[in-house]
Amino acid sequence: MYQTKYVRATDTNDAVTKLNDEGKLLAGGMTLIPTMKQRLASPKTLVDLADCGLAGIEDLGNNLRIGAMTRHVDVETSNSVMEGIPALAALAAKIGDRQVRNRGTIGGSIANNDPSACYPSAVLALDATIHTNSRDIAADDFFVGMFETALEEDEIITAISFPKPSAAAYSKFPNPASRYAMVGVFVAKGDTVRVAVTGAGEDGVFRHEGLETALVRSFAPEAIEAVTVSSDELISDIHAPGDYRAHLVKEMTKRAVAACS
Amino acid sequence: MANVSFTFNGESISTNVPDNTLLVDFIRETLGKTGTHIGCDTSQCGACVIHINRESIKSCSILAVMANGQDVTSIEGVSNDEEMHPMQQAFHENHGLQCGFCTPGMVMTAIELITNNPIASEQEIREGLEGNICRCTGYHNIVKSIQAAAKVMAEK
What we know:
heterodimer; A: alpha+beta; Uridine Diphospho-n-acetylenolpyruvylglucosamine Reductase, domain 2; Uridine Diphospho-n-acetylenolpyruvylglucosamine Reductase, domain 3; Enolase-like, domain 1; 3 domains; four-stranded antiparallel β-sheet; 32% helix; 25% strand; globular; B: alpha+beta; Ubiquitin-like (UB roll); DNA polymerase, domain 1; five-stranded mixed β-sheet
């Protein structure tokens, strides 16, 4: 790892000030530290958000507000999440391994927007709102591309608000080695149906209009049979070619819909 | 340089190291406690698992300075001079290791697992070990060891 300077911020304003000198924000560090070890990142300053008071889960009735520094293990075991959006607790329980879940945070995950991360699919399917130190961003506007988000350089996620759906489920086909999603599909049913796919898109997480339309018409696994999922713009790599991922998108959607009932 | 101050195996430590020092290197080289192993060095294998505030953490994936103010326990801190931790004893009695390289991490993960879920099923134990890799035993005796330790820990 290249040399770096580690500092702790006391709040988000302090963090912005400290970011100044080619800094990077540090949440749980479960991606950033390994990336720095590989010398793929070399921030001059690491600004740790641990003391900024951004962790915690609030049940606000119609939605759950989850602080950006809330760890996966805390989402996984939260009574509010298990009751309000059980699919979100179940998703958190299957991220990485136990040790990753003990450190990794929801804010860190979505700010990084790894194309195979689980959380972006939940944020997008549940039509969540991302709160930052300067504004609120709708999930549909947040995920811009692979490892890219709408966040400005000095913008910090403070919390994410998830409306409680009437039904939701996440189905993931994990890469057996990394546990990242080869394909993960989050289906959420509220006033409408939203289907978000992670692990498959060349531009990261995306909604699938064809699947959503079919499920609005009939919310049943069989409704998906007639939908065409194109392999265009899907990831092809050593783990799976695009057409296999396209097949998995349909299969994981069916499983998620079946799990909703 | 960064000041690193935390409780390590029950004792307060405070010393200065370069900011980019990994916790595992700090434990092994600065504190001289080499029970915590470095296996893959890429967050996969779990040989470096330690506890921070009694939760299992891969010490190769965090900086030493990130543990400031926390309660850090390595494999050396789970037993005393007279007797091994029930989990260590169970690994010994059930042949839960062959080469032993993964064992410190396995034991640390297993202690957290059984502390949180004293009646863990075989399936839950196997899933709980997802962050620890053993290339010798095929896991059967590790699972057996953890089941045996769970019984002893429940009696204590």
